[in-house]
Please model this.
Amino acid sequence: MPLITLEGVGYRYPEAEPPALVDVSAAIEPGQVILLRGPSGSGKSTLLRCLNGLVPHSTGGEFRGRVIVCGLDTRAHAPRELGAHIGFVFQHPDAQFVLEDVEAELAFGMENLGLPLPLMRKRVEEVIDQVGINHLRRRRIDTLSGGERQRVAIAAALAVHPQALVLDEPTSQLDPQAAEDVLQVVMRLVAELGMTTVIAEHRVERIAPLVDRIWTLDSGVLKDQPPRAALAEGGARPPVVDLALRAGWSPIPLGLRDARVYAQRLPKPPPYPPPRAGEGKAHYPLPRAGEGKAHYPLPRAGEEKAHYPLPRAGEGKAQEGDFREAGAAPVLCRVENLEYRYNGVQAVRRVSLSVRRGQVTALMGRNGSGKTTLLKLIAGLLRPQCGTIQAYARAAYVPQDADALLFASTVEEELRGQPPEVMAPFHAWLRRYPRDLSSGERQQLAIAVVAAQADLLLLDEPTRGLDPQVKQALSAFLRLRAAGRAAVVIATHDVEWAARTADRVLLMAEGKIYADGLPAAVLSDSLVFATQISKLVGGGLLLPDEVPV
Amino acid sequence: MIRHPLAWCAWATAALAAAFIDRNPFLQALLLLIIINVFIPYGAGRRIRIWKIGLALAVVPIIFSVALSRFGTHVLFTLPDIPIIGGRWTVDAAVFGASTGAALLLTVAVLAVLQTTVRSADLVAILPQPFYRAGTTVALALAFAPKTVASLHSIREARQLRGQRAGWRSAPQLLLPLLLTTLERALQYGESLDARGFGSRRRSRYRPLPWSIADLLIVVGSLAAVAAIVLMPPQPYNPYLDLVPGVPTVPSLLAVLLLATPAVTAGLSRMDHAAHHA
Model:
């Protein structure tokens, strides 16, 4: 008997024209893992909120059909009653905590259910072990990183012993390592506890091998398919699936482990040659013709300073010098020995960097490595405490939280004064309230509002919460801007997107740039910042379409 | 070292009464010393984040008082007939402002102790069942304050990015986006509370809060201090009448000294702990 049943569910938000969900029917058996995917604004969050009754109880609007959760009809039972059966983890780590410290948060749901103290103590200890957060139990919530908060949120949801766990894009606001940690927890729960799980997730690489069904939503219409059939059709899918489809591998591998069997049949690419100081010539592959990437000169023969994929022992920091080839595009921004300190913490240390017209540069590194500070310094939002910044073009900075940039009552009002070519992609939304747009749409609008006419674009985590289609469109937009005489610097954790979009990658740690070079050079030799294809094939190949099959 | 939240509430009430009812500078200085001594053992090395607000609140009344008040006999200097600020600037007005500023600084110091020692979860837990929902709402509102300040910063930064004014004169334009952001966050909190079963049935408590003798001593000391301040009100200090403050009365002095009970009990606990280990 299904644990959750959706029967002809339709939903329309108050005062909204198109319905958010159209005649959705599906069932989830106990122990099943469902991956929910679909473009931004396709109704994923709405569908997940139907499962615990937040839609329509909290949202109002027009609701049709019925959702039965553990035998309870969500129309007749409020979310607080369904809370004992469905654990819910929200997208924003900040939005779900009520109390100050971790242990109090873990117990909050159980206190609401009136559980006796000994049982609460036992369960708190259990979830702490299940989720692996013993080291966090005494910490205050506001001192936790985004990844730690999501793990605490999962633990808090599990503590009430729900029959199903619903996760609404739990990693969309996290860096790769934190996202990996959160997904590890989810995978452990699925593997060890057989927890019934519904997860909306754009990063499908890790989760795809574990799922029983994939639900694909498009404009509110749900397609329920087995994983291989769904991934073969399109949408968000792991790069190994793209490669498998190109190479004609069957059955399609869902993860790296399955794909390795097939990868052995591929022609072995030569190992990527890491240049060393004093070699004088670096052997980096140029971007391939037809990829739409700008061509940058390699370090010249005889040039003492080359770009290194990663620093080697004793060599210190890899050269942060730039593409100094004669006749290269003009420098739009030059930074020399930049330093910045926040409350006694050195956020940026002696950073030197030149950004040239036509370049798309990805700035990568773990949280707190100084990426945002560096962008803000270049944008002029912070004053350097040491060093110089020379900008030869108008700089525009788009912050992580695009919402802060949007406060007009319509999209049209936000775009007032912008040229027609900037407004064109937004014609369908002109009358809409900007904050009603999906996170991907808001991000696009924020970039258009702030950065449309600047020549030096500084974007901070622009792909957070974006679906693959929007990310692809953003990538094309930025490449177009770069081709049109702009320079783009993007602080991002999104390795796959950076590999596709950037023609230069900088890695930062503790305020310093420690690697600088072509994406193939920098990303192929990294464990954390490596694409799935790079892990599978090696040889400086980052993307499925680069692999010879 | 943890004390019962009710004990802290009683102490804070008495400390605020002492700060506002008796403006004698000697007593204000003594009260500040006592508050610092209470903060040190319970603060566990934490920094007071709101000290800048306290200092600003202490200075602003001095500036307003000295610039706007024309009373007092100890003249600092005289400005020509400029509207509002023209005329005699007096030491008396500055001291009057300082007295008000000191009371505000003491208030911030008391709130800093409360912020450090009382968790909103504990405060909510001690509320009687009928007040529980209201109490949680207040706890949430308190949790909102720092996030609202962060939102304000990001909205100001966003305006700067869009080439709009970001100074204090743009404050009215910041209000609407700030209100929208806060409302959105409030809705998210509401959803989270609902999804976690808040208000579904009678709550249980994960952290029972037992009473100790020290808690009892703090409550008794605080009640006695309030009684002394209210029942035997001191001669009010008025710098316009006499710049030099009088000697504090015995009941006032005793009331302020009683507010050191948390520091004394902390010291005794430490001695007891040390003796136990020896």
Observations:
- The longest strand of chain B covers residues 75-79.
- Residues 128-208 of chain B form one domain.
- The first helix of chain B runs from residue 5 to 21.
- Strands of chain B lie at 75-79, 87-90.
